[in-house]
Design a protein that fits this description.
By secondary structure, this protein is an all-alpha fold. The chain is 84% helix and 0% strand.
Length: 457
C-alpha cells in the first residue's frame, strides 16, 4: 500500500482507513487465540466450567508476557516511523534491527523465568484447589511458545508502522485460522483437554511469526529487517516511549488479578468460582471489544509519527480527528451489541443458565462506558506516536489507579462481590474526561513546538 508519497500527500481518510481497519481486524482476530480456547474449554463435558475458570486465572500471565512485546513494538515502531519521515532511512533500519535483537533477548530471559514462577503466580492470582490443576496445565504448555508470542506481537507493530497493515492482518489471521482448526482436534478428538488448547495456540503463534518475519525481510518492506547488535541509545528511547503501552497491558494483568481476588474473597468458594467463570467470559468479550479499538487508534500511529517527523502538523491534527470519528462509530456499534446480543456471545462458553444470566448482567455494567473510553485510547496512542511518553504514561497510569481504588472501595461499601465489576466503567469515564482535557491543552503546544523546530527533531 504505502509509499512515501502516500504518507506525504495521500488523502488522510484513505490512509487512516487503509491502516486502522486492517489493524482493527488483526486485533479482533488476535483475541480469538484466547477466546476460541476458552470457548472450547468451557464446553468440555463434566469439568468445562472449572477448566474455564482455571484458564481465566492463567490469563494475567499470558497478558503480562504480551506486555513485554508491546514495550518494544509500540516503543520502537513510532521511533522508526518518525526517523523515516525525517528522511533518516538508515537510522530507521537501525531501530528495527535493535528492536528485533531486544525482543530475542527478552524471549530468552522471560521463558525460563515464567516457568520458575508459574505455580506461585497462579496461586497468587486467585486459583482455588479446584481450578489450579487446569490453570497449571494450560500455562505449562503455553509458555513453550513464549518466544513466538513475543516476537510476533512485537514485530507486527513494525510491519504496521511502515504501512503494511494488510501483511500484519494476514499474519494474525493465519494463526487464528490454524488455532480454530486445531483446538477441537486436540481438545476433543485427541482428548487432550486444556493442554490441547495451549498446544494449538503455540503452533498457531509459530505460523504467525513465520509470516511476520518474512514480511520484514522481503523486498516489499520499505524498512527491511537486518541483523544488528542492539544499540544502547535506541533501547533506552524504545523503553521510554514503550513504557506507556507496556504499563497499559501489564496493569491489565494486575486488574484481572485484583478482580479475580476480590470476586473470590467476597463471593466465597461456591459463588466465587461462579463469578470467576463469569469474569473469564466478560473479560474475553471485553478483549474482543477493546483490542480492535486499540487497533483503530494504534493502527494509524505510523502515519502520525511520519507526519510529525516530516513537520506536517496539519496532517497530525487531521489524522487524530479521523481516527476519533472511526473509534466513536466502532464503540457505538459495540455498545449496541453488548446491550442487545450479549447472550449470543456468552452461550458460546457455557450452557449453565445461572452463569449466563449473571454474565449478561455484569457484562452490561462492565462495558457501560466504552464510548467515552475511545477518547482516552486515541489520546494516549496519539501522544505515544508523537514520542511524548511524558504525557501518555501519566494518563495510562491514572486510569489504572482509578480502577484499583474503585475495585477495593465499591465492594467494601456494598459488601457484594459482583459490585467489583462497577470499577471498570468508573475508571473509563473519569480517565476519558482527564485525557480529553489534557489533549485539548497539550496537543496544540506539542505541535507548535514541532513547528518552531523546523525540520530538526
Amino acid at each position: 500500500m504505502k509509499t512515501e508519497r502516500d504518507f506525504d500527500n495521500g488523502r488522510i481518510l484513505t490512509l487512516v482507513l487503509a491502516m486502522s481497519i486492517p489493524t482493527c481486524l488483526s486485533q479482533a482476530v488476535n483475541v480469538l487465540y484466547s477466546i476460541v480456547d476458552r470457548m472450547f474449554i468451557g464446553n468440555i463435558a463434566g469439568y468445562g466450567a472449572d477448566a474455564l475458570a482455571g484458564v481465566g486465572v492463567a490469563a494475567p500471565v499470558t497478558s503480562l508476557i504480551s506486555s513485554f512485546a508491546v514495550l518494544v513494538g509500540l516503543g520502537g515502531s513510532p521511533l522508526m516511523a518518525i526517523r523515516e519521515g525525517h528522511r533518516e532511512h538508515e537510522e530507521a533500519e537501525r531501530i528495527l534491527g535493535t528492536s528485533f535483537a531486544f525482543l530475542l533477548i527478552l524471549s530468552a530471559l522471560l521463558t525460563p523465568l515464567f516457568y520458575i514462577l508459574k505455580s506461585p503466580l497462579l496461586r497468587l492470582f486467585g486459583s482455588s484447589a479446584v481450578t489450579f490443576p487446569y490453570a497449571d496445565e494450560y500455562l505449562a504448555w503455553y509458555l513453550a511458545g513464549t518466544p513466538f508470542a513475543i516476537l510476533t506481537t512485537g514485530l507486527n507493530s513494525f510491519v504496521i508502522n511502515q504501512g503494511m497493515s494488510r501483511r500484519a492482518m494476514i499474519s494474525v489471521m493465519s494463526g487464528a485460522v490454524i488455532n480454530i482448526a486445531l483446538d477441537p482436534l486436540f481438545i476433543f478428538t485427541f482428548g487432550m483437554g486444556v493442554k490441547g488448547a495451549a498446544i494449538a495456540t503455540v503452533i498457531s503463534q509459530a505460523a504467525s511469526f513465520a509470516i511476520t518475519i518474512t514480511s520484514l525481510i522481503s523486498s516489499k518492506a520499505r524498512i527491511r529487517l537486518r541483523l544488528t547488535a542492539p544499540r544502547g541509545y535506541i533501547v533506552k528511547k524504545t523503553v521510554k516511549l514503550g513504557l506507556s503501552p507496556f504499563i497499559i497491558i501489564a496493569t491489565d494483568s494486575l486488574i484481572m488479578i485484583i478482580l479475580n481476588t476480590i470476586l473470590q474473597m467476597y463471593g466465597g468458594e461456591g459463588l466465587g468460582d461462579k463469578l470467576l467463570t463469569c469474569s473469564t467470559i466478560i473479560q474475553s468479550y471485553h478483549l474482543l471489544v477493546m483490542n480492535p479499538l486499540g487497533g483503530i487508534t494504534g493502527g494509524s500511529q505510523g502515519l502520525l509519527s511520519y507526519s510529525y517527523g516530516a513537520g506536517r502538523t496539519d496532517r497530525v491534527r487531521s489524522t487524530y480527528l479521523h481516527v476519533q470519528v472511526l473509534a466513536t462509530i466502532y464503540t457505538v456499534l459495540m455498545m449496541i451489541f453488548s446491550w442487545t446480543n450479549a447472550r449470543f456471545f456468552i452461550q458460546l462458553f457455557t450452557s449453565d443458565e445461572e452463569i449466563i444470566q449473571l454474565s449478561i448482567h455484569y457484562l452490561k455494567i462492565f462495558t457501560a462506558m466504552i464510548i467515552p473510553l475511545s477518547f482516552h485510547y486515541n489520546t494516549v496512542d496519539t501522544f505515544t506516536a508523537l514520542g511524548k511518553s511524558e504525557i501518555s504514561l501519566p494518563l495510562s497510569l491514572f486510569r489504572k489507579l482509578v480502577f484499583t481504588v474503585s475495585i477495593f472501595i465499591i465492594p467494601y461499601i456494598t459488601k457484594e462481590a459482583g459490585s467489583a465489576f462497577f470499577a471498570e466503567p468508573a475508571s473509563d469515564i473519569i480517565s476519558s474526561l482527564v485525557s480529553t482535557t489534557t489533549l485539548l491543552i497539550m496537543l496544540p503546544r506539542v505541535l507548535r513546538e514541532r513547528t518552531s523546530l523546523g525540520l530538526s527533531i
